[in-house]
Request: fold
Amino acid sequence: MTTTRRTPPGELLPRSFLAAPSMEVAPRLLGCVIEHETTQGTVAVRLTEVEAYHGELDPGSHAFRGRTPRNAVMYGDPGFVYVYFTYGMHYCMNLVCEPAGTASAILLRAGEVVEGIDLATDRRRGASLRELARGPARLTVALGIARDDNGRDACDPSSTLRVRAGAPIAPNVILAGPRVGVAAGADTPWRFWIDGDPTVSAYRRHVPKRRPGNPSTSRRGGTEGFSS
DNA sequence: CTTCCGATATACT
DNA sequence: GTATATCGGAAGG
Reply:
């Protein structure tokens, strides 16, 4: 019989951990640690907020309209990193899930810097401890991740970009709710976060494009979610 | 807490 | 050619 043993905290996350549907993996990724080592030093972030994107079935996913040069990494093996550029100035980082051929991924939305605080603060131009990685683009800045990190393997022991297992999170403090910034499929509760953690980003619903003369200024949300 | 708006790769018509 | 984007910083209340 196969006993599924939890990976001890600090140990590299096995690729098999990510070879499952993103919405199942995502809550279990909370508390895990992303670590990036550069010549400047190492920064590590403990994840407190993530979002699952489920391939071609998910209207919110970058792979919803099929394979393109940008989303190609999502179709590859689990454990690889999908980095994309958005809003003309930001990078966001995902971990690819499921076996090659499917296009699931998990967006790393926020976390707590647990190593390399000085370096992260420097990269984030003096932001407070709480704000260092509070938001997906902030997280990539704190970690020193950019475009050329797209397609790197975070489950390779010799990699300078790694995912490590974290201490177990009590299921009752893991909440789920709608995703941020997603126009289509916004009602699907595939955002997961650690309840009450100060590094979880402020929820902002997708803002529909405001046409001149069509002042639909719908906004706001909340941090309320469903316990899982 | 809120609103405003930048600056551009990417995908689609 | 044009619309949109898995957003953040600054400034106002």
User: Anything to note?
Assistant: Chain A is about 10% helix and 25% strand. The mean pLDDT of chain A is 91.
